[in-house]
Design brief:
single chain; about 130 residues; YaeB-like fold; 3 helices; globular
């Protein structure tokens, strides 16, 4: 069953394990990042959302700190009629603020999957 969307709201589609991973976040983190994703569904941008480097325009990350840990959700707004959550993870980089290569590579692979899914569901023009 498909959830009814409000006027102007894009569906939120999750790639791979991103939804399960997001749901494992602490409640305050889910609330804040959930707000960022909700704003993206209506074409807005959360004040804490910033561009995800390396994948071009339309890919953002929402970052939230909680109890000394950092949580991120990477999502794409480059598709006309849907928002895709590509990756949700707790940052565990061995070096300072740098994101682990495995997370960067996984996000890039999932963006390609999102592109294929979008074209299959909505066509190349996107609805």
């Amino acid at each position: 069953m498909r959830t009814r969307l409000a006027k102007g709201e894009k569906p939120l589609d999750w790639v791979g394990s991103s939804k399960r991973d997001f749901l494992a976040f602490p409640e305050p983190v889910k609330d804040e990042i959930g707000n960022a994703l909700g704003l993206a569904q209506f074409g807005g941008k959360h004040p804490k959302a910033k561009p995800w480097k390396g994948l071009g325009p339309g890919v953002f990350e929402a970052v939230e700190d909680h109890d000394g840990d950092t949580y991120r959700a990477v999502y794409s707004v480059r598709f006309r009629v849907a928002v895709y959550v590509l990756h949700a993870f707790q940052k565990k980089s061995p070096r300072g603020i740098k994101t682990a290569r495995t997370d960067i590579e996984l996000t890039a692979r999932r963006l390609k999957i999102a592109q294929q899914d979008y074209e299959a569901r909505y066509g190349k023009t996107g609805g």
